Amino acid sequence: MFRVEETGLTEGFFAGRDRTRVSLLHFADDTIFFSKASLEHLQNLKIILLVFGQVSGLKINLEKSTILGINTGQELLSCLASVFYCRVSKWPLFYLGLPLGGNSKTIGFWDPVVERISRRLDGWKKTFLSLGGRITLIQSSLTHIPSYFLSLFKVPASIASKIDKLQRDSLWSGAGEGKKDHLIKWDVVSRPKELGGLGFGKTSLRNIALLGKWLWRFLRERSGLWHKVITSIYRTHPNGWDADIVVRWSHRCPWKAIAQVFRDFSPFVHLMVGNGEGIRFWEDHWWGNQTMCSHFAGLYRVISVKNLTVSNVIGNSFPLSWNLNFRHNLTNSKIDLLQSLMSSLSSVFFSPSLEDSRGWSLSSSGLFSLKSFFLVLSKVSNPILFLPAKFLWSSKAPSKVWLVAHGKVNTNDKLQLRRPYKSLCPQWCILCKGNGESIDHIFLHCPVTIGLWHKLFNLARLAWVSPKNIEDMLVVVFKGLGNSLRGKTLWQIACLTLLWMVWQERNNRIFEDKERTEEMLWDLILFYSSLYASCTTGFRGIPLSVLQLNWTAVCTSKV
């Protein structure tokens, strides 16, 4: 196409002050051609496509094509469409699943995303999935459906809240009609798992992380057409690495939203000195915990030329040259600052044969990671670690035990506060038919549950005293089945399975009027613990029947 344009047969458009030429966008079999609204140019383009089809053996289906105009009259568009035997379309145009020419600040722009999420939640999926199934559905589908849009456009706050609400309602929904209890605040649910959440994250933060990916790619894809167009239109940042963050253009421009992420993105980018020719000595963050102009502000104020590179100031080899060029003689206090500066750079390392580069401080590889950026954005102020997190999520036990760790299971004492008309006997435990039902009682102090805990600890040949609350039980590390990977894994699974079976037995007695003996419950705990453990890598190749018969032997075996 470039050769054709040079002959004047067709002409695309030129973007920005550098007049970057854009003739077409092509991905697989989807192509957009840009041309002047000229009958002659369109006829030439049609001939080129037909010749290309004959040479390549591919069929060019003009009837499936559409033509759109920018500041072009409808009459002229219709005339041009007749040349191509194609339809006239209107903006926005959907290309590769994304709308071109739409206004991402409007609610209607995001309707396709909201509708797709709503459709995914309709029917049996919303009604009959267990809590674990709903968690998996949200993690695998609902958080990824909007990601394509979120990776390019800034989501309005109202749409982000709506998507979060759809996910929130999906998590707490279940069989039956009516209002469902949201047992844990969404702010907690959306946190990372180590802080007590499920790791969903908020849509607005996911949006920022996805947009930040373009800031990282901007530096590394200098030869790409998109990089050239952005640079031509918006220019570069004074640091010479990034695009200019000041964007005074139409609200329809996606890059304006991307540039606004720079403030969140830049603290986690560090510069790595090579030959020192591309890094500003004073303004860039390349050494220590902050920029030189911030750390040595007194010296920076008396420097005559500030916008100098590292190689300009200190060279790129030892001994350092120290070309600072002060405007006047230094006072004693500034001499002390200068000595501190020279001392701090005594261990700087140069690679004169390499160019300067950038790294991502949140990953060991130094490469940008969407997950790491998203997690750091999701961190809350003054975070408190959720101590049972590792115990809960490193096993294959049912996800509902997460509610037990938070103390948010609908026991009678909770129901009495939340919905008094549903808790008919708040001071009565269905298992022991004695004390009032609370989360600590039913999972720790109830005689039925204590009997099961004693069986588990006796199997591991450990003495046990019931802790005060369930959180302590999930935090204390018992090496009941040894210190091996198998022993730790099976012990965690057995503890969580015991909690799950106690809750199931409680519900069976209340809602189905069925009761199982302690021995029957213990057999079920042995079976399901063995079943869950057999799904882990540590027990790969061990038959379920062998594992179920002798836990201790399997966990201590080196085979």
From TrEMBL:
It comes from Vitis rotundifolia (Muscadine grape). It comes from the Eukaryota. Residues 1-100 form the Reverse transcriptase domain. InterPro entries: RT_dom, RVT-Znf. It holds the Pfam family zf-RVT. This is Reverse transcriptase domain-containing protein.
